[in-house]
Amino acid sequence: MTFDISPNGNNEIGTSPSETGKASGSQLRSAQTPSFDDVADVRIALPRKSRAESVAVLTQILADTMTLRDLYKKHHWQTSGVTFYQLHQLFDKHYEEQTALIDVIAERIQILGGTAIAMAADVAVMTMITLPPRDREEPPAQLARLLDAHECVLHYVRAAARRVAEIGDDGTNDLLVSDVIRLNEKQAWFVHELLQGDCVSRVP
Predict the structure, then answer these.
(1) Max Cα–Cα distance, the chain, nearest Å
(2) End-to-end distance of the chain based on CA atoms, in angstroms?
(3) Which residues are CB-contacts of 101 (< 8 A; sequence separation ≥ 6)?
(4) pLDDT tens per residue, the chain (204 residues)?
């Protein structure tokens, strides 16, 4: 199983010096910064090759986690109907939990000598989660979309956790199992129960 940092290979954004006639200060600085497919030298008793593979895995998970977080915020703003308050509160709670998880993942990338992505444009290019329409969706569709997103994350993370264990990255394995998998399983459980209970389609 191969893990790539960007499914589209689109890790470079900006105008080249040849297009502008001269390099700007920001371009000169970026030329000296390691790319997303490289890792800095850090002394944590883990081979560079292993750290680079873990960074690639974590970068994909970071992109998907940021997408899932934003999906919760979109639904938080746009939910409606008789279950508005219940879903409004739940979506915001899950959003906050995913936000905290993002920091943990990004910090692990930095610890391994990588560079964490941060911008929405990068996330949109890299995420494996199907992006929602701009318009409002009805609560059952919101819940179904969230459940699909959680399952997408969990499918990848389970395979990733096994892989990083194989290459000896115990710290990343622990993060994936203890933080990413457990949180997504719990949130998926809540979403699934709401959807299965049909509470969002019944009028009191």
Answers:
(1) 67
(2) 49
(3) 65, 179, 180, 183
(4) 444 433 434 333 333 333 334 444 444 333 344 455 689 999 999 999 999 999 999 999 999 999 999 999 989 878 867 777 688 889 999 999 999 999 999 999 999 999 999 999 999 999 999 999 999 999 899 999 999 999 999 999 999 999 999 999 999 999 999 999 999 999 999 999 999 865 554 433
pTM: 0.80
**Containing domain of residue 155, as a range?**
20-196
The answer to whether 91 touches 75, Cβ cutoff 8 Å, is: yes
Residue 202 lies in a domain: no
Tokens of 104: 């943990």
Hey, what amino acid is at 23? A
Q: In this structure, is residue 5 part of a structural domain? A: no
Q: Is residue 203 part of a domain?
A: no
